[in-house]
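It is worth pausing here to work through a concrete case rather than discussing structure prediction in the abstract. The textbook approach is simple: state the sequence, then state the predicted structure, then interpret. We follow exactly that order.
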Amino acid sequence: MVLNWKTGGVLLGFVFFLAVLLVKPIGVSTQFVILDAIVADAVNPELITQTEDGAYTSTNEYLAKSKGKYAKNASNPLNYSFVFVIAMMLGAFLSAMARGGISKEERKLPAIWYANYGDTPMKRYAVAFLGGFIVLYGARLAGGCTSGHMMSGMMQTSLSGYIFAAGAFAAAVPVAMMMYRKEA
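Step two, the predicted structure:
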């Protein structure tokens, strides 16, 4: 069963509304930092320490900022945000399995990719990885990702959410036009 985009949009909006109402706004890019810190702390146990007053700090300035909030989340990863990210991945997997897996047709490269770059799945993976890296890097520079800034921000009528959305589309449209000059 493939969900209609309108129904999916309404359901996504409802989930965001419930998250804001019941817990807190949704945002996930920080959890990449937390995962990195968990791995780094396993390699270097002196990276994150707990002070005598119970607060957390780190030798890494980024983890120590916000009064050790990131260091605390890395030391105790079973918090709402980290579990939310794990649940998103698990939910996507279970959803795909419930509908019989991902079909061969869905695994094919899009026709527009073929028209512009040919039969090059490895190139597509490299471009997707590079694009993801740039987006994640930008999200950390901005202090949040599209789900935090744009979706949760706009839902809370935050001016920065609207500005971010305008900037995201102002950048995405010309990049897509440059990458996909030939139509499918």
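Step three, interpretation. The first strand starts at residue 48 and ends at 50. Strands lie at 48-50, 56-58.
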